[in-house]
Amino acid sequence: MTAATLAGLTGAALVGLGVYGLLVLAHPLRKLLCFNLLGSGVFLMFGILARKGGAAGFAADPVPQALVITGIVVAFSATALAVALLLRLFETSGTVTLNPDEQRPE
Amino acid sequence: MTDFLLAAAGLILLTVAVGLARILRGPENVDRTMAAQLLGTGGIATLLLVAAATGVRGAEDVALGLALLAAFASVAFVNSAAPRQDDDP
Amino acid sequence: MSAADVFTVVAVSAGAFFFLAGSVGLLRFPDSLTRLHALTKADNLGLGLVVLGLLPQASGLLGGLKLLGVWVLVQLSSATAAQVIAQALGRRRPPP
Amino acid sequence: MTVIEILDIGLAVLVLGVAAWTIAARELFAAAVGYVAYGLLLSLVWVRLFALDVALTEAAIGSGVTGVLLITAAMRLRGTDPPQASEQLRPMVRVAAATLCIAIAGVLAAGVLMMADPGPTLAPDVARHLGETGLGNPVTAVLMAFRAFDTMLEKVVLILAVIGVWSLAADDAWGSVAGPRPLAHHQGPLTFFAQLLPPVGIVVAVHIAWVGANEPGGAFQGGALLAAMAMIVLMARVVQAPAVDRRWLRVVLVAGPAMFLLIGMIGFAVAAGFLAYPDGIAKPLILFIEAFMVLSIAAVLPLLVIGPPNRPQAGPP
């Protein structure tokens, strides 16, 4: 098995793990972490596309690599915005849930 | 020589991975931060060894980038754990 | 095997040993400060010896300088990290 | 089985193990530290895929900057981590979710295993036109020339994110300063570190941005490392971040995409169209745009990490 196939399988498993965490975990920050796991799994699957598309003297196809670089930066900006929203919610309400039954009386 | 470098890389990765059990066990956040710090250094060593063995171009620059960021997690932890008497909530 | 290769094997093996020692220390030592001691050994000597061992294999002068740069930067980072972690520990638990 | 295969398998197991740990961890902080470790291991995987540009981006942004963001957030949200009773899922739901996810991962894995080898590729097209850009690094050529429109809009996304974060400021803090306050007197190892590392870091960052034309590296990676240096200085509380209503700060923020757009427009007049570069001077133009992009990225990333301005505006001095 080549390093590329192995990385692709790792990516597939990471997507599964990320979706599981998104569904099951309650805390929004944990959900964000899982969103990032899911994203990096997708990026790894791009990685196997790149490696298997290596041709014309390049070890890996540069186009999927460029897509992944763009993707990492965009995923970061989305995460940063979500963290800012979450911290602001915590500041104003003292809790991190939007469920009205769970808002702690303070 | 190639196989030796790769084996050394694998061994270092394995040992720092065992050290990662400190992230699992804690007991305190300081211990977890230390495990991340060890993984950072071990990761750099692994990267250098793998790069030397596989002859991939430009790996020294990746290692330099990682080395610049080596204290990042620890500093972030200490900074946010510091007493905030003069800070806003 | 040339002399340079023997040097690489010896130095890299010694580096791997220090990483092993650091990990074992991090796991087995009883409290945070002693674990910190184990961590810094791995950071300094482990990576230092690996870099030293890889120098004969480096691609040219610039490659070698970059390797040394990596080690110097990690020295600086790990020394700082150890200091601030120890400070954070000391702040929380004042000596009796 | 060769040594490299064992190493690859070990690395994959480790990546998956740490990922599973960040999901299973009881405490928020442990999960955040686990994510930092995960990002670092992932950049090793990218090195094994011969994608050094991605490895550098993942190390700097995926692990480093995101790690600081998550660790800081986890520390601020201490005490919120035990899930409330009604949000605990029943075991049946968990099993159903797990089954669904195993199915998703299985389908994706089957896709990976059935993928043609060699797969579909645009590499020959890139190789054919690489000469026209004058660049030696194909990834930079794709980012800055062949898919320049994407890269430009991605810079705009970063600025939109900054606007989004700033707009979360409380009314009385609008236009003021974000992030930790500087210390009154500087001493100790962290201050020393924050004074010693950035000069070295700036040299390395500029080096990586500059060699990006021909070797792995480029504007993203160099900019992210510069941003990391700015964050070290902020976290060591040596200086405070500039107030968000400073004009120069806003100019720096938009410099990258603005210069990209401007030169793209000039392409209408002197080359084949929007974002086309005239023959012969493509490389200097690309490096010129990249210089501004490095500055913008270096400003955007720390601003996103330190969050909205959080101190009431001080009166006029």
TrEMBL record, chain A:
Where in the cell is the protein located? Cell membrane
Q: Which Gene3D superfamilies match?
A: 1.10.287.3510
Task: Note the topology in the membrane.
Answer: Multi-pass membrane protein
Q: Which UniProt keywords apply?
A: Cell membrane, Membrane, Transmembrane, Transmembrane helix
Is Cell cycle a UniProt keyword of this protein?
no
Residue ranges annotated as transmembrane are 6-25, 32-51, 63-87
Q: Which domain of life is it from?
A: Bacteria
One cellular component GO annotation, for this chain's record? plasma membrane
Q: Which family does it belong to?
A: Belongs to the CPA3 antiporters (TC 2.A.63) subunit C family.
Q: Mind telling me what this protein is named?
A: Na+/H+ antiporter subunit C
Protein's organism:
Reyranella soli
From TrEMBL, chain B:
Main localization (coarse)? membrane
Q: What subcellular locations does the record give?
A: Cell membrane
Q: Which residues form a coiled coil?
A: none
The keyword Plastid belongs to this UniProt entry's keyword annotation: no
Keyword tags: Cell membrane, Membrane, Transmembrane, Transmembrane helix, Transport
| Bilayer topology | Multi-pass membrane protein
A GO cellular-component term linked to this record: plasma membrane
Pfam name, any one: MrpF_PhaF
Transmembrane ranges?
35-56, 63-82
- Could you tell me one molecular function GO term of this UniProt entry? sodium:proton antiporter activity
Q: Which family does it belong to?
A: Belongs to the CPA3 antiporters (TC 2.A.63) subunit F family.
Recorded protein name is Sodium:proton antiporter
From TrEMBL, chain C:
Keywords assigned by UniProt, alphabetized: Membrane, Transmembrane, Transmembrane helix
Fetch the InterPro entries from UniProt.
PhaG_MnhG_YufB (IPR005133)
Q: Which GO molecular-function terms appear in the entry?
A: sodium:proton antiporter activity
Q: Which domain of life is it from?
A: Bacteria
Residue stretches spanning the membrane: 6-30, 42-62
Q: Name one Pfam family in it.
A: PhaG_MnhG_YufB
In its UniProt entry, what is this protein called? Cation:proton antiporter
From TrEMBL, chain D:
- Return the Pfam families for the record: MbhD, MnhB
What are the UniProt keywords, alphabetically?
Cell membrane, Membrane, Transmembrane, Transmembrane helix
What are the MrpA C-terminal/MbhD domain coordinates in residue numbering? 13-78
What residue intervals traverse the membrane? Answer: 6-23, 28-49, 55-74, 95-116, 152-169, 190-213, 219-239, 251-278, 284-306
Q: What is the annotated localization of this protein? A: Cell membrane
Domain (Na+/H+ antiporter MnhB subunit-related protein) ranges: 191-287
Topology term for the membrane: Multi-pass membrane protein
GO CC terms on record?
plasma membrane
- According to its UniProt record, which protein family does this protein belong to? Belongs to the CPA3 antiporters (TC 2.A.63) subunit B family.
Protein name per its UniProtKB record: Sodium:proton antiporter
Organism, per UniProt?
A: Reyranella soli
